[in-house]
Amino acid sequence: MANLKSFVAIYPLAALLLMLMAMSTVTQAQTQTCSSQLSNLNSCIPSVVPGSNVSPSTECCSAIQQVEHDCICTTLRVVAQMPTACKLPALTCSP
C-alpha cells in the first residue's frame, strides 16, 4: 500500500516533468525554424539600408513570405527591447 501511495504522489510530478520537456523541445524547434527563416532575409539587406532606393528583389519577397507571423513579431519585440537591456535609451523612430 505504501508503494501505491508513493507512486500516486510521484505520478503528477513525473507528468509535469514530461510536459515541460515536451514544451522545451517544441520551443527549441520553433526557435531553430525562426532562425533559419530570418537568415533567409539576407537577400533583403540592399533594400533596408538607410538611403537605399533599391526595391526588394524577388528573392527577398519570397523570403519574407516564408517567415511565420509569430517569428517576425517576436523578433521585432526582442529587437525593440535590446537597447534597454544594454542600458541604453529606448529607441524612438519617426516617419
Automatic annotation (TrEMBL):
Residues 34-93 form the Bifunctional inhibitor/plant lipid transfer protein/seed storage helical domain. Gene3D superfamilies: Plant lipid-transfer and hydrophobic proteins. It is found in: Secreted. The keyword Magnesium does not apply. Residues 1-29 form the signal peptide. Pfam families: LTP_2. GO terms for cellular component: extracellular region. InterPro entries: Bifun_inhib/LTP/seed_sf, Bifunc_inhib/LTP/seed_store. Keywords: Secreted, Signal. Its main location: secreted. Belongs to the A9/FIL1 family. This is Bifunctional inhibitor/plant lipid transfer protein/seed storage helical domain-containing protein. It comes from Aquilegia coerulea (Rocky mountain columbine).
